[in-house]
Amino acid sequence: MARKRVYSGIRATGRLHLGNYLGAVKGMLALQDKYDCVFSVVDAHTITVPYDPKTLRQSVRDIILDYLAAGLDPKKCKLEIQSQIPQHTELAYYLATIYPVSRLEDLPTYKEKKAQYPKYVNMGLLYYPVLMAADVLLYKGELVPVGIDQEPHLEVMREIARKFNSMFGETFPEPKRFATSGQYVPSLAGGGKMSKSIEGSFITLSDDLETIKKRLAAAPTDSGTLGGNLPKEGGVANLFMLLKLFVLDDVYNKFVHDYKDKKIRYSELKAVLADAIYKELKPLQERRRRFEQNPKLVDEILEESKAKCLKIAESTMQEVREKMGLV
Prior knowledge:
It is a single chain. The chain is mainly alpha-helical. It contains 13 helices and 5 strands. It folds into 2 domains: 5-183 and 294-324, 3-Layer(aba) Sandwich (Rossmann fold), CATH 3.40.50; 209-288, Tyrosyl-Transfer RNA Synthetase, CATH 1.10.240. The strands form 2 sheets. Strands 1-2-3 form a 3-stranded parallel sheet. The chain has a two-stranded parallel sheet with strand order 4-5. 36% of the residues are buried.
């Protein structure tokens, strides 16, 4: 029996951080052993917001290196650079001809991006969910490991799949959101989750111990004399959430008791947390260096994966073109 196919992609907007690793990549590691997986760097999505064309290629390469360093195995999964598979944009255009503009204009993510970049509102932003649907449907993906915040985009995928199937015959599965065991990783800035777009909120997978210490040193705290129960939000709450992710229970409980007893020393907590995070990241950094020192191997991995992806993508597009009467 054929394994279900999974598609997942990360935009090339900077080096992967702890939130990407614990929230997404660690889930990918488990998926590659159970499913037929395609993991992508979605660079065509990246250019819908302001970006630097001089650094884009290196940003893409950095994420591929981070994928490999984290343990994604090209023998178990396919690694794809989205723009190198032209069938993505071909399918997206065909799907766009059967989907209403009004539905895209109502999506919360489009409204958020318009507000975030009022001087950079482009067709790509509006088109983003259609391209996202094409990304998954091109490989007839059934499972998409994303957060609940992406559910509106998944519903667009399902609507497009249903519409295409009803107009041209059964072709695409309706993708479902797949909840991995990934962790929510809080921001160092004191509110929300870790994000590449918020300076001071993240720790990258390549940060050395001193850099991690500096980033944590800037994380907001309180006087340390409040006592009582831990706060539910803000800088202190986020520090304790991070601590919970990286240290043993007895170490975590020690700092909880210190907080309650009004004798917590945040400098000590941050030092312990920095050491624990670096201990987790050090093996990844060592693997990454080995791949960096062997660019030919990385190129060979990408070429082999690209050939496999192109074969699947072209098979889907031949079927789509025939059913739409284009050939």
